[in-house]
Each structure stands twice: as C-alpha cells, then as structure tokens.
Amino acid sequence: MFRPDRVTLAPATADDPVLGSSPAVSYPTPGLAYNTDVSNPKALNAPLPADIDRSTGTDGDNVFTRAPQVAHFKVAAHPGGDETYDLWAVSNHFSSGPDTRVGQRREQARYAAAIASAIEAAHPDARVVVGGDLNVFPRPDDPFAPGDPQFPSDQLGPLYGAGLSNLWDDLVADVPAAAYSYTFEGQAQTLDNLFVNDNLHGDLVQVRAAHINAGWPADFPGDGPRGTSDHDPQVARFSSRASLSVADTSVTEGDKGKRNAVFHVTFSRPLSQDVPVCLVPFPVTALPGSDFDLVPACTTLHAGQTSLDLAVAVRGDKVKERNETFGVLVVAGGGVRLADPLAFGTIVDDD
C-alpha cells in the first residue's frame, strides 16, 4: 500500500541487476524460473541447499514457501515536488515457529540479505528496507536456552551480517516497555522486524509498534483475540527531504590581498535534479569590508552530487590583532531541509 501522489513504482528494465532478467543475487543455489521475470514488484526464490540443517524441520523444498516481494519505488521528497529518491522494499513472511524450521529460516534471512546486498551493489545511494513477520526474535533474544544444540540460533544473523540495522533496537532504546508486536500465552514478544540499510537508517525519525492487536489478547479460555490480527504493524517514519549541513572553517589572513575561507557543504543524499545553493556571510567579531567581504556566494548543486564548496573572501593586513570570526548561513532550493545551515569562519592572525 502506498500513496500514489508521493510514491510511484519505477519501471522495470531487463538489465536491472535485481528486477531484470538476470538477478545478481549471490546464493548457493540458482534462482527459480520466475526469478527471470522482468517486473516491479517481483518475487525471488531458490531451492534450499542440500547441506542446511533440517533437524527442526522444513516446509517445502525451496528457501521460501512465501517468496519475498521486491519493489523499487520513486519517492517524492515533498508533496508536489519533482525531486525524488529511490526506495527499495523487500517484504516477506518467514516460516512459522521460532523453534522449528530453524535451518530454513536462517536461509531465508540469508537470501533476504543477498537481495539487499544486490540492491546496494547496483544502487549505492538507494534506501533499502527488509521486513515483515520474520517469525523469530531479534538479537539478543533466542527461542533456545543455553546448552540446547541449537543455541545460539541467531536466525536473523545474515541480515545483521549484511550491515543492516534492525529498527527494533531503536524502538527498545526509545520506548522499551512498548517494544513488542505479538502476544503468545500472555508473553509479549517481537516477531515482526524491519531491517534497513545505513542510508535509510540515517533518515529515521521514529519507529513504533502500533498496538492495535497484541495489546488485546484473549482474557480467558475460549476467548479470542480482540484485534484485527495476531500481530501489530511496525510503523517507521523517515525524513524524505535531503538535508544540508555546513562545516566551520578557518583561514590565515596574510599580510595583503584576499584569501578564500572555504566552507564545505554536504547533503545527506544525492538529489535527482539541480538545485541552487547560496551562502550569506554575517559579522561576529570580524568587520565586513575590512576583515572580510560581505558578499553572498551562490552556485548549483548538480543532480547526483552530495557536496560542494562555497567561499568568502578574507582580507589580509599587517595589524597585530586577535583571531576574528564571522558566520555564514547556507540555504538551498528544491525542498532541501536545513539540518545544520550555520557555520563560522575563523580569521587567524599571523602578524
């Protein structure tokens, strides 16, 4: 489900390394026939390797009985805007039973991690989320006790190993009493997980479990759950606008003429279109006209770039004085969020 005024499915092409006819998903067994379909969204799957642990059972001969759905979206950074970014979503429901089908569930995590890695290898700037009812607990929880042959099962280990972050860690750090999404025989548990890559994790605003189901379990024998499901949806909010930051700088003034104090401006992600960027200086202890030029500087951040430099001219003299400072405000068009738009330049005296 998505809002068509903000989110659209990107067209699938045959040469795309995930949605195309030859998916570059690194896994021990070859993909199933439908892996070659060119579509968005797309299902991906493979036969189970012969050497996996089957001691706790399996449900079928393939990695997934419910193949993951992989979708590539274009997301508008703000309503009505033309600037977009790429979001990849991998939605899945792993095999049921945290203490059964352990080897198969670990392979499901391994294959999902391979999909995420293939996306990142082909699209380094993409935001990626892998999630759903993964039917097992996040680290450090485990359905097996120490001493059991399966302990530690770490069934989601491949997802962590691929460099993905489980948003449950953010949830439990923020609101630990609410970090559950499922209730089984009176015990609150977390079986639903959202893993995101670093790009998307950096945009995280908040994550919550919407307690519309697990908070209303059966009260007595014969009573049924009072929610619409037995699991709670996981709700994560992310900043969709690219954010701008500028760093402080310093420059030695010299005895005469002008030198540039260069300010490095960075953006949280590449933009899909050109945007204007301007720097406006203002005095602090340095005097405009005698210590620095009170002249705005403007340029263009081109599509695909993530940084640029803007300069303020500093004037040299032979007067012995203290170091002086001035400030700058950097702004940008295209709906860019000003995360840290203020910086200060230090004019270092060398007399």
Major sheet size, sense and barrel closure: 7 strands, mixed
- Mean pLDDT across all amino acids: 94
Query: What is the count of helical runs?
Result: 4
- Structural class of the helices, strands and pairings? mainly beta
Q: What proportion of the residues is helical, as a percent range?
A: 10-25%
Q: Provide the CATH top-level class of the largest domain.
A: Alpha Beta
Count of DSSP E strands? 20
Question: What is the distance, rounded to the nearest whole angstrom, between the alpha carbons of the first and last residues?
Answer: 66 Å
Unreliable sequence segments: none
Order of helices and strands: EEEEHEHEHEEEHEEEEEEEEEEE
Strand content: 25-35%
At the fold tier of CATH, the topology name of the largest domain is: Deoxyribonuclease I, Chain A
**Radius of gyration over C-alpha positions, nearest whole angstrom:** 26 Å
